[in-house]
Design brief:
The chain has about 100 residues and is mainly α. The radius of gyration is 20 Å and the shape is elongated. Helix 1 packs across helix 2. It has two domains: about 60 residues, no CATH class; about 35 residues, no CATH class. It contains five helices and no strands.
């Protein structure tokens, strides 16, 4: 038997709590049915949607602090060693300086 897990909101480019482009209601319903084993009420759904949106909004820092893909980083490191440049260090430093830890 395949065990289902509680779903979380996934990143979408234009998603904000004010402009939800994700299916919060569907995810909330899945989570509540999984947790309770019964059909949730409208109030339960709304509370779970609110929780999901708050969780999504609280992780903005992680979404903003995106490093280049690992393949790109490896390519930068290779060329830095061959060419004697610091492209990789500069790219990482830029991400860190543009999005400092809070």
């Amino acid at each position: 038997m395949i065990q289902q897990r509680i779903k979380k909101l996934i990143e979408m480019p234009d998603h904000t709590p004010e402009n939800p482009s994700l299916n919060e209601a569907g995810i909330a319903k899945h989570n509540l049915i999984y947790a309770k084993g019964e059909s949730p009420t409208a109030e339960d759904l709304k509370a779970e949607e609110t929780r999901l949106l708050a969780e999504y909004a609280s992780s903005q820092y992680q979404r903003d602090r995106r490093y280049p893909r690992w393949q790109e980083q490896m390519d930068m490191q290779y060329h830095d060693q061959i060419d004697g440049t610091t492209t990789w260090k500069d790219a990482i430093a830029k991400v860190k300086s543009d999005n400092p830890k809070e």
